Amino acid sequence: MIRLARTAGVRHALTHWVRLGLIPAGIATVIIVGIGYAVELRSRTVFQKELSLRTGNQLELIAARMISEINTSVISVRGLTNVITDKPGISMPTLAQHAQLTLRQNPSLMYLALAPAGIVRVAYPASQMREVLNTDLLQVEHLRAAVAAAQSTMHPMTTGPARLASGKSGFHIIVPVAGWGVVVAMVDETKLYASAGLNTPGKGLSDRPHRVKLDIAMRTAPAAGLPQQVFFGPADIFDRAPQMRSIAFMGGTWDIAGVPTDGWNQPPPELSTMRLSFAISAGLMFFVICLIGGLLSERRRSRSALKMQEDRVAALSQRLGLALEASNIGIWEIDTTDWSMMFDDRMAAFHNQPEGGMFDYRSLRPVMHPEDAERLDMGFRVAAEREVGETLFEYRVITPDDGVRYLRSVGTSHFDSRGRKKLTGLTWDITQDKELNAQLLGAKASSDAKNIELEEAKNRIEHNALHDPLTGLGNRRKLDDALQDMAEQASLHSGGIAILHIDLDRFKQINDTLGHAAGDAMLVHASRILSKNVRATDLIARIGGDEFVVVITNVTSPQYLSELSERILVQMRQPVDYNGYSCRFGVSIGIAMEQDKGEGIDARQLLVNADIALYRAKENGRNQWQFFTEMLQAEIVTTKRIADEILGGIEGDQFVPYYQPQIEAGTLNLVGLEVLIRWNHPREGVLPPARFLKIAEDLNVMAALDRIMLEKALADRARWLKMGLQVPKISVNVSAKRLSDSGLMASLDGLSFQPGEIAFELLESIFLDDHDEVVTRNIADIKAMGIDVELDDFGSGHSSIISLLKIKPRRLKIDRQLILPVLHSTNERALVRAIIEIGNSLGIDTVAEGIETIEHAEMLTVMGCHVLQGYAFSRPITAADFAALATREGWRMAS
User: Fold this and answer.
1) pLDDT tens across 267-300, in order?
2) Residue 362: which of 334, 389, 386 has the closest Cα?
3) Spatial contact of 876 and 660, defined as CB atoms under 8 Å apart
4) Residue 15: its pLDDT value, please?
5) Gap between the Cα atoms of 651 and 20, Å rounded
6) Residues 6+ apart with CB under 8 A from 728
7) What is the pLDDT of residues 61-107, one digit of tens each?
């Protein structure tokens, strides 16, 4: 029965809880469901936009690849037609050799046919194309319209696809030759689609997990004399609301269409998970709110029951208090006629009597404290003489153990029924109160003493918190607390305020050589000099290891600040003796001053301005003072703007490589290209390195720029190879930051090159530090990968024969400052010849930079220099300009 009752109680409580929380739980569930529905709609919209965008991007990629492949093939064929145009009398066997070479250089071409006057006379591969010899192209049905259009417009035409007897299919490229005929080539359809990233028709770029699986179709665009046809994928794709792109190339235009394989209305992939999450959230919210509602109801019932219990406890406590109080209070009465006394048992116990009863007042005197007996007698007599009224007595009783009991009595006089005057009252023991009061007084005295100590300790802590423990000057917190107040005071009195930001020069060397104790002694010495030279109203603070700030108020003249700074500089330069060592150090001072112009003084900005001026003083060579000026501020703002633009330029791919050819002396063969960075600025155009490299070094982005130049140079080299341009070597600059990066070798993994095809140009100052193990290891690993090491700007001021023996670079690049005067200066000529001989003796090739004229080139060739580079051959040019220049055979390509 008990178990059944408990079960019923639990069931009732749960039902009550659920009922109370049902409405808010339902509301919360509806809200969550509504939110989930809204989120689902939003997710579908976002997914549709993303699907459309990704589809368009994939079509753009396919179009770009196909245009590149078709144009490459057209250019290859046009190279052959240029031979015919340039040499009208060329023989057919010679022309056949050129055709065979063109076919080998472009693997995408399946065959080539040379058709003077439209009649095929030569076709390659010869073994597969015998049947087309002597064929009139205007009589071939699928070529007739394209050949006629090409001859009438004198522009290349593309048609197809067409299928050969071998089963292969491809696209015909017809290139007309004025007054001669046409050249026909066929591009392999399978290779064209593969190069564009297409798989089987209708599938598109579906082999990548992050790309949309597409159904793709392509057709020729309408053109005069040429029918429109779908040659890739199902034709119905053009009727399924596809994304469309045009592929325009020499002689033709194709339309490419793509739709997602699963359709445009496919749900987002995460929809099921999202619905499940919202369903679980709604269920949990419903349960939690129901549970909370029940708990709140139970809490209210518990609080009500607790209040009733507290009331009962209060009543019991009141009665108990009265009982305890009554049990500790004695009752007494005195008859003033004969001074007889009546005590109850408590009173008897208070006065060391065995039990209560009648006593003679005089019999109690022996137990009274001698100092209180007379006073108590007088009190009773005064009370007896008073008609009515209340009287309070406090006195002491000697206990049997010679202790003291403190008693307090309160009584009132009255007359009984027989007219006798009596005193009746109550007495209670206050011994504990007296002892506690004595303890409290002692504690109060002790607390007062401790409060005094705490106040002193607080003052010491505040002083320590605001002052430097070594020098006794204010610290950064003291400066922060006082700076704004001093600026406001200066504004109130229409005065000026100035800040001197002081940094000790060569302080680190003293610390490193003589130890921190010597450094501390120098800091104390510097603080004394500052304290001696400033006024008592000024503030001196040590805000860093070797940095001080002086805040000067009521200053109106820069002359005063200049003289003060000069005195500090002179006194700081004086040698200081430390344990027999003469220590010298200087200071750099940045000065910022501001007068109140009615708008208040921004103390924080003034401190920043002083720091900027200090930075400039250090840049200018240290051991000097520098005032903050608006021009200095403008330089800082300009530097900040350029720094922001550099970061944006890296993100926006604005940095591009320029190339300057390197020519072999004597043969004038191209032996390499030096990669030079340029900034394609969106507003200012192409900027040289001098405009941004220094700021880029301060931003610590030189390693990123080096990496970008290397990757772009390799990509350009690959494009040149497709064009038939063989570049033996590219030389890329490597900054000190990147060379000292422990992750350099990891960033070079995956590069495709042969040994000797890449060279890293290092400034000679990079590797002069024998202690940098990372640089030394990276140089060794670079050489092990097959990357040549070249020493740039050799002879510019850091030359080291020992370093040459240690690093063993592949080439030395002689600085242009030594090359320019060699035609007229025998000293420079002898120095350059000596460098070349040093390189020859060490097996190191020499490269002469700055070859401005042919006379320079001839002179350096006679002197034995191996490679020449300069404006005499070419200025730094873009990749496209280099391809055009090399195609015109401006110089011979090295084999």
Assistant:
1) 887 777 877 877 887 778 777 777 777 677 777 7
2) 334
3) yes
4) 60
5) 59
6) 670, 671, 672, 756, 757, 894
7) 888 888 888 888 888 888 888 888 888 777 878 878 888 888 887 88
The conformation of residue 766, written as its DSSP 8-state character, comes to G
Q: What does the H/E/C string look like for 24-41?
A: HHHHHHHHHHHHHHHHHH
**To which residue do tokens 């055009």 refer?**
884
Point out which residues pair with 540 in neighbouring strands.
550
Helices and strands of the chain, counted as H and E runs: 24, 32
Ordered alpha helix ranges (H), 127-228: 141-153, 189-195
* Mean pLDDT computed over every residue of the chain: 81
Q: Is 141 exposed, middle or buried (0-12, 13-18, 19+ CB in 10 A)?
A: exposed
DSSP string, 605-673: HHHHHHHHHHHHHHHTTSSSEEE--HHHHHHHHHHHHHHHHHHHHHHTT-EEEEEEEEEETTT-EEEEE
- Cβ contact 103:111 at 8 Å: yes
DSSP for 333-345, written as a single string: EEETTTTEEEE-H
- For residue 127 the two structure tokens come to 């073994």
Residue 679 contacts residue 686 (beta carbons within 8 Å): yes
The token pair that represents 235 in the structure block: 């034709």
- Hey, is 491 helix, strand or coil? helix
End-to-end CA separation in angstroms for the chain: 107
Neighbours of 300 (CB within 10 A): 9
Spatial CB neighbours of 466, under 8 Å, sequence gap ≥ 6: 474, 475, 477, 478, 481
In whole angstroms, give the CA distance from residue 182 to residue 153: 12
- Give kind and range of the element (H or E) at residue 760: strand 758-763
Using pLDDT thresholds of 50, 70 and 90, give the confidence band for residue 765.
Answer: low
Q: Is 442 exposed, middle or buried (0-12, 13-18, 19+ CB in 10 A)?
A: exposed
Residue type for 282, please?
Answer: A
Beta-strand pair 811-814/788-794: parallel
pLDDT at 21: 60
CA distance 828 to 843: 22
Residue-wise pLDDT for 567-606, tens only, equals 999 998 898 888 888 888 889 999 998 876 656 677 788 8
- Encoded tokens for 97: 């050799």
Residues 753-777: b if buried by 16+ CB within 10 A, e if exposed: eeeebbbbbbbbbbbbeeeeeebbe
State which H helix or E strand residue 415 sits in. Answer: strand 404-415
> CB–CB of 117/195 below 8 Å?
no
